[in-house]
Amino acid sequence: xxxxxxxxxxxxxxxxxxxxxxxxxxxxxxxxxxxxxxxxxxxxxxxxxxxxxxxxxxxxxxxxxxxxxxxxxxxxxxxxxxxxxxxxxxxxxxxxxxxxxxxxxxxxxxxxxxxxxxxxxxxxxxxxxxxxxxxxxxxxxxxxxxxxxxxxxxxxxxxxxxxxxxxxxxxx
Length: 172
Prior knowledge:
Layout: H1 15-34, H2 37-42, H3 47-58, H4 62-76, H5 81-92, H6 96-114, H7 116-125, H8 131-147, H9 152-164
Helix pairs in contact: 1-3, 1-4, 1-5, 3-4, 6-7, 6-9, 8-9
């Protein structure tokens, strides 16, 4: 009696598609290797994958690093890449929420530079804000813009606003 093998519900994946997926996983592994160790430690990844990534950071020779990255790619086949991509995007600032937050902070900075009353409203809404420090940064940023100097205070104002607006929760 001849038995007919049941076909799986999913259509067969072409070799080209499999190779594309493997290259994407390996690229994700390369992105993990490029992260600082402090950020890597904060990510939720499998211990074996974390050790392979840390080992790849230590390898200096080209061929050795290439082989280790291939090994990382092979380990990546066993994990779901979606949570890793989401964590990586959040760390590198590529997430939609991070982009929206960045635009909101830039708009706030422009509003503070354009209007002195905006600073009063901002400080009343944020109890931990240093009014005098913000006022000094705003004054220096206005002067830099007027004189065409490099935007040091302008950037520092953004960093201060970002630290004051830091999210109170961690993703994960």
